[in-house]
Amino acid sequence: MKQKFLINAKIIDPSQNIDVVGGVIIDEKGKIKAIGKDVNKSNIPSKAEVIDIKKNILIPGIVDMKTFVGEPGYEYKENFRTLSQAALAGGVTSVVSMPNTKPVIDNVSMVDFIIRRGRDKAKVNIFPCASLTKNMDGKSMTEFGLLSDKGIVGFTDVMKTVQNTEVMSRIMNYASDVGVLIIQHAEDYELSKNGMINEGEVSTRLGLAAIPSIAEKIIIERDLSLLEEHPCRYHINQISSQKTLEVIKKNKSNGKQFTAGVSINNLSLNENDIGDFKTFLKISPPLRSEKDRLSLISGIKDGLIDVIVSDHKPEDEESKRLPFAQAATGAIGVETLLPLSLELYHNESLGLKKIIETLTINPSNILKIQKGSLKKGLDADICVFDLNKPWMVKADQLKSKSKNTAIEDRKLQGKVLMTFLNGELVFNQ
After folding, report:
1. Residue 19 main-chain phi, psi, to 5 deg
2. Are strands 411-421 and 382-392 parallel, antiparallel or unpaired?
3. Are 147 and 175 in contact (CB under 8 A)?
4. Domains in the chain: how many in total?
C-alpha cells in the first residue's frame, strides 16, 4: 500500500483535542503516521498518493456501540456483508454486535464462530458482545472470564433486563473481580409487560398498552445501588427519560463510576411522530415525550450521557407492516447515525466536537479498544463528511438488507463522502 496524504481537511479529533485545518499521513501499513496543520502540499513525496479533502470535515471512524448483525440465524434480516456496506456508507468503521442471534452468543464455540465469520465476511471492525445470562433467560450468568479471553468486549441481554436482583448482584460481583463490561437494558418487566409505546396522552388516544418511564428508572436505581457493593464496569445501554437522567445526575455527583448511552432515535424523534400507528417507529426503549427528548440532549451536553448509538435493528417489512401490537420492535440506523446526529449541531442543540466525542472516543474508552482516535500509530480508520450537504432519506437507497428506517423521507443536512478502514478507501460517495 502506498503512503497516503489526506490534505486540506478540517480535522476534528476530540481524543487529542484537535480542531485544525491540515492533513493526515497514512503509512504503508495503514497506520496514522502524522496529523495536523503541518501536513500540506509542500511536504508530499512524489510517490505518495494524495487525496484532497476539499475543506470537508475529517474525524476518526465512528464506533457504534449497539448493532444487530443477524448472523447466525437471522441472515434474511441482515448479514455481515450488508451491515458493512451500510456502516461504511455512514462513516462507521467499528460496530459492537449484539448476542441475540440464533443460537444466542453465550458460549466459546459461538464466540469463535462470530469472530471467524466477522473476520471473513465483514468489511468493518466487529467487536462482539456475549449474553449476560445463558440463553438470555435472566437466570444463570455466562462464563465472563473465559468469553472475555476469547475476544468479547461486553456482556448484555440486549432488549431483556436481568430482573432478578440476586442474579444481578452475582453478575456485578463477578464482573468486578474479572474486570468485564456489563451492559444493561433498563426496563422493569412487570411495569412494562405488553407495553408498546410511552405512557401518556398518545398511548391513551391510540389505545395502546404503555411503558412508563418509571420502569426504566427503577432498574437503574437498583443497579446503581448494587454498584456501591460491587463496583464493576457498568454501562446503561440506552436511557430515554428525564426521570432516569435525574437518577444518573444524583449518582454521578456522588462519585459513582458508570456510563450511559442513548439511541439517536430518542434524540431525534418523540412519541408524537408515531402519529396513526406508524409501526416503523415501534422501538425499545420507546419514543418518549418532547420534554424527555430535550432532557436527553441536555444530558449529553452536561456529560451525563456518554455515547450515542444507532440501535441498529433490522426487521423485514412483513414483520413491521402488521397491527401495532403484533409488529416487530426496532429500526435500522447505522447508515444514518452521523447525519441524524449532525441535526443536533445544525439546530444548535449541541456542539460539533461534543457530538463527535460521543460517537468516537467515548465508546472506545468504555469498551477499552484502540479505536475512535487519530493518534499516531493507530489504525487509520477515518470518516470524511460534508457538514452541509442536504439529502433525503429514502429506504430503497439505504444499504441495509432490511429497510425499516424510522425516518423515511426525512430531510437531513450532512453526508458521508469517504470512509477509510486501515488506511484503505472503502467507501467513496
Report:
1. -150, 85
2. antiparallel
3. no
4. 1
- Convert the pLDDT of each residue in 384-400 to its tens digit: 999 999 999 999 999 99
pLDDT, tens only, 31-82? 999 999 888 777 788 788 999 999 999 999 999 999 999 999 999 999 999 9
Lowest mean pLDDT among 45-54, 263-272, 398-407: 45-54
Q: What integer pLDDT is reported at residue 207 of this predicted model?
A: 95
- 426 is a domain residue: no
Tell me if residue 13 is catalytic.
no
* Residue 105 is assigned to a structural domain of this protein: yes
Instruction: Residue 48: name the closest of 2, 87, 102 by CA.
Output: 2
> Is the pTM for the entire model greater than 0.90?
yes
Q: Is residue 107 in some structural domain?
A: yes
Is position 322 within any domain?
yes
Q: Which residues contact residue 9 at a Cβ distance below 8 angstroms, ignoring those fewer than 6 apart?
A: 21, 22, 23, 24, 53, 55, 56, 57, 58, 384
Residue 131 has a CB neighbour count (10 Å cut-off) of 27
User: What grid cell was written down for 263?
Assistant: 439511541
Exactly one of 292, 311, 379, 381 is catalytic; which is it? 311
* Three-class DSSP labels, the chain: CCCEEEEEEEEEEHHHCEEEEEEEEECCCCEEEEEECCCCHHHCCCCCEEEECCCCEEEECEEEEEECCCCCCCCCCCCHHHHHHHHHHCCEEEEEECCCCCCCCCCHHHHHHHHHHHHHHCCCEEEEEECCEHHHCCCCECCHHHHHHCCCCEEECCCCCCCCHHHHHHHHHHHHHHCCEEEECCCCHHHHCCCCEECCHHHHHHCCCEECCHHHHHHHHHHHHHHHHCCCEEEECCCCCHHHHHHHHHHHHCCCCCEEEEEHHHHHCCHHHHCCCCHHHCCCCCCCCHHHHHHHHHHHHCCCCCEEECCECCCCHHHHCCCCCCCCCCEECCCCHHHHHHHHHHCCCCCHHHHHHHHCHHHHHHHCCCCCCCCCCCECCEEEEEEEEEEECCHHHCCCCCCCECCCCCEEEEEEEEEEECCEEEEEC
CATH number of the domain where residue 120 is located:
3.20.20.140
Q: Which residues contact 34 (CB under 8 A, 6 or more apart)?
A: 24, 25, 376
Average pLDDT over residues 283-306: 97
Q: Which domain holds residue 303?
A: 60-367
Judge whether 184 and 161 are in contact, CB under 8 Å: yes
